[in-house]
């Protein structure tokens, strides 16, 4: 027996540790299942008391969702919203199940651009500034026009247009703070740059009656950038979730897109079944595990609707207090833009974008990449080798779908530092991508 123990000590120790970790993980997430159901009742009561009508939620059994066959006009509302792939033990038991359905309550929600703000969302001047704009049905866009010194040359030669799309829980500041200051003078003279705050983030509209589908995001970019500025051709630069929207734009405007630069694109080859593909993506980007902390946070915010609303209530609604505390601690007047951007959304906008864009686009991504490949668009993919948000395999998967794509792996860089901290080098990569068209 002693010989056996000496021969297989590592194996038994490893298996025992994994078993303990699995048991602890199961217990913790089981408790979170229970807590989320309790919070469903709490929020229903508070919403009814404060706003006069109970809030809509997705606390229904998966079987009930399937029989109702929830779909948008183009099937862009993800089944993961309604419980498919994120099973709650207590919901399936029918424990405290009486969540209001979205179609019953949508008519009671504030319309697009409505001044009515959910009580658990922040109502400061900055967060609701979009409601008071002259045209509050357009995105917030930072436009950097070609320098005046070269206007006459621009009249003779067409200006190159570039649209920048940020990732999840970010804003146009990601580009204006990192890329714009590092652009060379020659590029500034010949390029018109558009840094977009996507629908539901930054200073852009955050309507309560919107499902934040990929179609919604595309339509808002068209209304805010492509149509008003009459863009007949443009380059696309995107990070993380923005890569999905960029590829959708490229597929819709194959004759207009000159080049695409994707940074840390979340692409997972999909199965033939749309629902299975969306569930698979949810499991990849928000796997239910305790470590690392970033993964645990992603799981909580993606799997638990009401727990996520609690986090947004405590942090986003009270962001001014937290920002004030942080400024005292670090003794600075201004916080880093990434910290500020983390709270510039509502739970409704982040929750629906996560499920309807990141998960909901799973099946469509293959079609988008096929369009890119067939139309010979110039595609460049950049990713850090230490990315813990998007697996490195995603970039390799794109290379398989688009053989002519250039894939660049940055050593010792993660999901954010692949750009942040190396802004000059990243900007040079962008300029090299655009130079062949000028």
Brief synopsis:
This protein is an alpha/beta fold and 438 residues long. The protein has 19 helices and 7 strands.
Ordered list of secondary-structure elements with their pairings:
Blueprint: H1 2-7, H2 9-51, H3 62-68, H4 89-92, H5 102-105, E1 141-144, H6 151-156, E2 160-165, H7 173-176, H8 185-190, E3 191-196, H9 214-226, E4 234-239, H10 241-252, E5 257-263, H11 274-285, H12 293-303, H13 305-316, H14 319-330, H15 337-341, H16 347-359, H17 365-374, E6 378-384, H18 393-401, E7 406-410, H19 423-435
Parallel strand pairs: 2-3, 2-4, 4-5, 5-6, 6-7
Antiparallel strand pairs: 1-3
Contiguous uncertain segments of 5+ residues = 1-5, 62-74, 101-111
Number of strands: 7
In percent, how much strand structure appears in the residues? 5-15%
> Helicity, in percent?
40-55%
Q: Give the count of helical stretches.
A: 19
- Span between termini: 75 Å
Radius of gyration: 23 Å
Backbone structural class: alpha/beta
Mean pLDDT score: 84
The topology string of helices and strands comes to: HHHHHEHEHHEHEHEHHHHHHHEHEH
Largest sheet: 7 strands, mixed
Rough shape? globular
Strand order of the largest sheet: 1-3-2-4-5-6-7
């Amino acid at each position: 027996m002693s010989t056996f123990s000496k021969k297989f000590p590592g194996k038994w120790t490893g298996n025992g540790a994994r078993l303990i970790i699995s048991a602890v993980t199961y217990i913790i997430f089981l408790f979170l299942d229970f807590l989320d159901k309790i919070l469903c009742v709490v929020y229903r009561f508070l919403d009814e008391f404060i706003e006069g009508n109970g809030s809509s939620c997705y606390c229904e059994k998966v079987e009930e969702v399937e029989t109702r066959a929830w779909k948008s006009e183009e099937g862009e509302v993800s089944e993961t919203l309604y419980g498919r792939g994120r099973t709650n033990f207590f919901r399936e038991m029918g424990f405290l199940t009486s969540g209001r359905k979205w179609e019953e309550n949508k008519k009671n929600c504030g319309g697009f651009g409505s001044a009515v703000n959910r009580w658990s969302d922040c109502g400061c001047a900055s967060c609701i500034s979009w409601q008071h704009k002259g045209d509050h049905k357009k995105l917030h866009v930072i436009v950097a026009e070609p320098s005046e010194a070269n206007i006459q040359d621009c009249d003779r030669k067409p200006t190159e247009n570039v649209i920048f799309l940020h990732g999840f829980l970010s804003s146009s500041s990601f580009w204006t703070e990192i890329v714009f200051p590092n652009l060379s003078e020659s590029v500034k003279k010949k390029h018109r740059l558009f840094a977009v705050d996507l629908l539901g983030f930054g200073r852009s509209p955050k309507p309560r009656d919107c499902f934040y589908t990929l179609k919604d995001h595309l339509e808002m970019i068209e209304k805010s950038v492509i149509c008003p500025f009459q863009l007949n051709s443009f380059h696309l630069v995107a990070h993380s979730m923005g890569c999905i929207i960029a590829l959708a734009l490229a597929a819709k405007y194959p004759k207009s897109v000159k080049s695409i630069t994707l940074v840390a694109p979340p692409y997972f080859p999909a199965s033939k079944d749309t629902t299975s593909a969306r569930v698979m993506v949810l499991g990849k980007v928000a796997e239910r595990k305790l470590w690392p902390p970033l993964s645990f946070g992603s799981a909580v915010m993606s799997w638990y609707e009401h727990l996520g609303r609690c986090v947004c209530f405590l942090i986003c609604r009270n962001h001014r207090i937290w920002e004030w505390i942080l400024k005292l601690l670090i003794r600075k007047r201004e916080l880093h833009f990434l910290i500020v951007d983390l709270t510039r959304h509502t739970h409704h906008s982040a929750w629906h974008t996560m499920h309807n864009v990141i998960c909901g686009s799973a099946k469509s991504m293959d079609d988008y990449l096929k369009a890119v490949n067939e139309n010979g668009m110039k595609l460049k993919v950049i990713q850090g080798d230490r990315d813990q948000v998007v697996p490195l395999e995603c970039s390799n998967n794109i290379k398989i779908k688009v053989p002519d794509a250039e894939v660049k792996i940055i050593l010792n860089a993660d999901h954010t530092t692949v750009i942040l901290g190396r802004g000059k080098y990243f900007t040079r990569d962008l300029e090299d991508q655009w130079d062949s068209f000028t």
